[in-house]
Write a structure and sequence with these properties.
Length: 248
């Protein structure tokens, strides 16, 4: 049993990735504000198909960290009631790490994640999942050499500069307007949030249409790629033109 508290104002629809894996013993509490209160239709489908229990809390007032404090207060209330099982705060806001530390010291199993199926990003669960810490790195281990593409300069051609910018962009969330275009264009029965996120990632990583096709093949296989590629090809071209001024 797990209790998931979702800071929707922070994570948006990305936070629901993995919701289809929840069981009937899990509970999801969604906190949203008046400014960020719309859920994509695909999210509604995912929630309806999920076995977990859901509850929604809206914050109607405006103020710095207003939603965050309500989430933190609700968390304390539920822990006091007992029977929460594992507690997972779904947010990218590291300010919640202090709350995780507080309750861990009092014996509560709790962590913070950016999305439901993601890895813990703080607390004991995060530390135990770490593959390597600075203490385990050998002092004579060769240090990585920065790629010349990491910082485009005047000597690089236009294509190289686009590559460098696009690599740095991978840490930035895919713009919402292209998400909406993909969701309204790609109609595949049984598609999950994770499937759409895979397409977003493929678009951001691809530097031309051939690479886009190859990335889609790796993710979905040859048979399904034919359909998906036809549906996203024009969106990809618009994305490349609008974001980078490149015609592909």
């Amino acid at each position: 049993m797990s209790l998931y508290l979702i800071d929707y104002e922070n994570v948006r629809e990305k936070g629901f990735e993995g919701v289809e894996k929840l069981t009937g013993r899990d509970e999801v509490i969604i906190f949203y504000s008046e400014f960020i209160k719309n859920l994509p239709f695909q999210i509604h489908v995912e929630l309806m198909n999920s076995k977990a229990k859901y509850e929604y809390f809206a914050t109607h007032k405006v103020g710095k960290n207003y939603l965050d404090f309500q989430l933190a207060t609700f968390l304390g209330y539920r822990i006091a009631q007992g029977g929460t099982g594992n507690v997972v705060i779904i947010t990218g806001d590291t300010g919640f790490d202090s709350i995780v530390d507080f309750w861990e010291e009092r014996g509560v199993t709790i962590c913070r994640k950016s999305y439901i199926s993601g890895r813990p990003e703080c607390g004991k669960a995060h530390k135990s999942a770490a593959v390597k810490t600075p203490d385990t790195v050998h002092k004579n281990q060769p240090q990585p050499v920065e790629s010349p593409l990491a910082k485009p300069d005047k000597e690089q051609d236009g294509a190289s500069q686009v590559k460098a910018v696009r690599r740095r962009e991978l840490i930035i969330e895919f713009p919402d307007k292209y998400k909406h275009m993909i969701r309204s264009t790609v109609i595949v029965p049984g598609f999950t949030i994770g499937n759409y996120n895979t397409i977003y990632s493929a678009i951001m990583k691809s530097e031309n249409t051939l690479e886009l096709n190859n990335n889609i093949v790796k993710a979905f296989g040859t048979e399904l790629t034919g359909k998906i590629y036809k549906q996203i090809k024009n969106v990809y071209r618009v994305y490349m033109h609008d974001e980078y001024g490149v015609d592909v």
